[in-house]
Write a structure and sequence with these properties.
The protein is 36% helix and 18% strand. It contains 24 helices and 26 strands. Helix 2 packs parallel to helix 12. The N and C termini lie far apart (59 Å).
């Protein structure tokens, strides 16, 4: 048993009945009996829980510091997970053995796949979540994770020491100082402060300091980061009022039912915890001109909307929508907050008007004429750090071994926070063990797209993930996240199975050879075996589908539902027939029971075989583009390069400043920084070539000719 101390009380948590060594003591710099951990995570939100669990899975003795243990896993805003783009992130977090997908499969009350009218590459898994159940399940998971200790406490300052000479940065973090003056030493620190850095809650003209309703903000930590030289910005977000369920007239509203069957978020779950018939419906209503009138007449009573601080573009407040899109009606989704909850969350009605005006506005909406408001909506303004100050591993440029994850990097949403959390946790642990960082490129996953966008372009508004942000979304699908990431997350470099799927082979081999295999050690054996079984089953199934070949006329007789052309006498493989929209594997197996029937016994396998067939041709061409991008990413820039004083390369002052601020690690990352011109990239390429030649001359490396050949080829491409 370990004791969790905080706020004058002790909380006990069992660590999965695993015997752990006592907490290590720090060296000369630490006082006797001062606790020393491998990794300290500050903040128990969605980024913090994923980061702490990931670091512990990687084998690091981890401490999670949070204001209150009973708020771990709290869904501060919407009672839902997933959506278009966000569902992709959840699948990738799950592929790395993250928590949120498994917890959602245990806590959901309405599961639905969005974007079904389009191809499976852009389907968005989404679920309404029972707030209370999610928090209970997350706390149970966190408090029973081996190597993870949870302590209540607020961090006021960082403990800093001399930097490591082999790494960039002006100092190194070696622990944190709590509000009571006590110190905790650590080899890596992850900050997941959410909206707590100088957080301010706004309702009408009233403002008071808070990171969340009922929780104090973090002032001292924000001041420390600013004094260290971090560029700090200000963002805002908001949440809708909560409405009593019994006061709503659902009978006149459009009812939305869940999917049957429900698709789980996690790859290791075949189904969710609740049957479709037991799930709760959602309802949709709309605003009207009277709502617009109330908002426009009372803008002078709304300080949040008058602020120049930028809010979320893609989840704006109702005031912002009325101002930006006048004379339009807007959807309002009425979402249940739990199985036994009496509250309804009006999605799309985020508002910061005074409470009495919020209630007046709500009762103007169809179905809500007699609605009773239980809690008013409110806005939150908070500090964030320009994400161009972190590396793709989420370690900061300024302070060694200090990692940022979540809204502190300018993102919005549970899923974006969770994705950053799992990467920060893995890399903080790898940093302790002095291993290379685990970096997901934008050709490997939406996590890579998210982090690359942040670190190269920055953001001046809350960043939200969409499928449109990914160039290679046909390859980065929700269904194949395990094939792309689980094997990279495993601690073994061995190839357990043979690759025959073009997309999987390309992702794995190019990642290993061009980018370097960065083992993480964060994936459980159960997940690894499940992913291995699925990969081998897919390979076997595709091989079998390719081997079955009949004439088009015979296929038409076997499957009359298929729109197979009879104009030409063609020979078609079963894989080609499966590409037809009206043909699924079950229909195909009825036509050719042996040997296809066995592949229909697993729903997920049957669906993935259909998807692989659908994208077979187009993926071949996309893989060529991915190879070009990954070749760019393989060209590393020296980490200690001083762009401001560098004389060996011709760069404008503006480009030098942008490169100095963002500090890209590869030529590919440099090319994506706004304002860095193609001419500057060519000059950087020549510089890299010169560096490689010098290293070859000094070290007499036999591989240099091959590297230079790649560089020459890249330089010849049009930029």
């Amino acid at each position: 048993m370990f004791s969790l101390r905080g706020c004058g009380r002790w909380v006990a948590a069992s660590l999965a009945k695993q015997h752990l060594p006592p907490a290590r003591l720090s060296g000369d710099s630490a006082a006797p009996w001062t606790p020393h951990y491998d990794v300290v995570v500050v903040g128990g939100g969605h980024a913090g829980t994923e980061a702490a669990a990931a670091a512990a899975r990687c084998g690091s003795r981890t401490l999670l510091l949070t204001h209150r243990v009973d708020t771990i896993g709290q869904m501060s805003c919407n009672p839902s997970f997933g959506g278009i783009g966000k569902g992709h992130l959840m699948r990738e977090v799950d592929a790395l053995d993250g928590l949120c997908s498994r917890i959602c499969d245990q806590s959901g009350i309405h599961y639905k796949v969005l974007n079904r009218r389009k191809g499976p590459a852009v389907w968005g898994l989404r679920a309404q979540i029972d707030r209370k159940l999610y928090k209970q399940n997350m706390q149970k998971e966190i408090l029973n994770t081996p190597l993870l200790t949870v302590q209540e406490g607020a961090v006021e300052d960082l403990i800093l020491t001399e930097p490591e000479p082999e790494h960039t940065g002006k100092c190194r973090v070696s622990g944190v100082v709590l509000v009571d003056g006590s110190k905790v030493y650590a080899d890596s620190v992850i900050l997941t402060a959410g909206t707590f850095l100088r957080g301010m809650i706004v309702i009408g003209l009233e403002m008071h300091p808070a990171g969340r309703l009922g929780d104090q903000p973090s002032i001292g930590l924000a001041q420390t980061l600013e004094k260290l030289g971090f560029v700090v910005g200000r963002l805002k977000t908001g949440t809708p009022p909560r409405i009593a369920k019994e006061s709503i007239n659902f009978s006149i509203l459009n009812k939305q039912t869940p999917d049957n069957p429900s698709i789980p978020f996690s790859f290791i779950n075949e189904t969710v915890w609740i049957k479709p018939e037991d799930q709760l419906p959602c309802y949709v209503t709309h605003t009207n001109p009277r709502v617009d009138e109330i908002i426009l007449e009372n803008l002078h009573l709304n300080s949040h909307i008058k602020e120049t601080t930028k809010g979320p573009r893609y989840c704006p407040s109702i005031e912002s929508k009325v101002l930006r899109f006048p004379n339009r009606i807007h959807q309002v989704w009425l979402e249940p907050e739990g199985i036994d909850s009496d509250l309804i969350y009006p999605q799309g009605l985020s508002v910061t008007l005074p409470a009495e005006l919020q209630e007046k506005m709500i009762t103007c909406i169809r179905g809500l004429e007699k609605a009773k408001m239980i809690q008013p909506g409110y806005g939150v303004q908070y500090d964030y750090l320009d994400p161009r100050q972190i590396t793709p591993s989420l370690e900061t440029h300024l302070v060694q071994r200090l990692f940022f994850a979540g809204q502190i990097n300018g993102t919005t949403g549970y899923e974006e926070a969770a994705a950053q959390g799992v990467i920060a946790g893995i890399n903080a642990s790898l940093r302790v063990r002095r291993k290379p960082p685990f970096v997901v490129s934008r050709t490997e996953g939406y996590i890579g797209v998210l982090i690359d966008d942040l670190t190269t372009q920055g953001t001046n508004e809350p960043y939200r993930m969409f499928t449109s942000r990914a160039e290679f979304r046909l390859s980065l699908r929700p269904d194949n996240a395990d094939s792309r990431l689980t094997f990279r997350g495993n601690s073994s470099l061995s190839l357990p199975i043979r690759f025959t799927l073009l997309s999987d082979l390309s992702h794995y081999i190019l990642s290993c050879l061009l980018l370097g295999y960065k083992e993480a050690g964060c994936v459980s054996q159960q997940r690894y075996e499940r992913a291995s079984w699925m990969k081998s089953s897919l390979e076997e199934g595709i091989s079998m589908l390719k081997s079955i070949e009949f004439s088009s006329s015979k296929w038409k007789k076997l499957i009359p539902e298929a729109s197979i052309s009879m104009g030409k006498v063609l020979s078609l493989r079963a894989l080609d027939v499966l590409k037809y929209e009206e043909v699924d594997l079950e229909l195909l197996a009825k036509a050719v029971p042996e040997p296809l029937k066995k592949y229909t016994q697993c729903r997920e396998l049957a669906e993935r075989l259909k998807i692989e067939a659908t994208y077979e041709t187009v993926l071949f061409y996309q893989q060529q583009e991915i190879k070009d991008i990954q070749r760019d990413e393989a060209l590393q820039l020296p980490k200690d390069l001083d762009y401001l004083t560098l004389r060996d390369v011709s760069l404008s002052h503006e480009v030098r400043e942008k490169l100095h601020f963002s500090r890209p690690q590869t030529i590919g990352a440099a090319s994506r920084i706004p304002g860095v011109t193609p001419a500057a990239i060519v000059n950087l390429l020549r510089f890299v070539k010169t560096i490689q030649q010098r290293q070859a001359a000094m070290n007499e490396l036999p591989k240099t000719d091959h590297c230079l050949c790649d560089t020459d080829r890249l330089e010849e491409r049009q930029l």
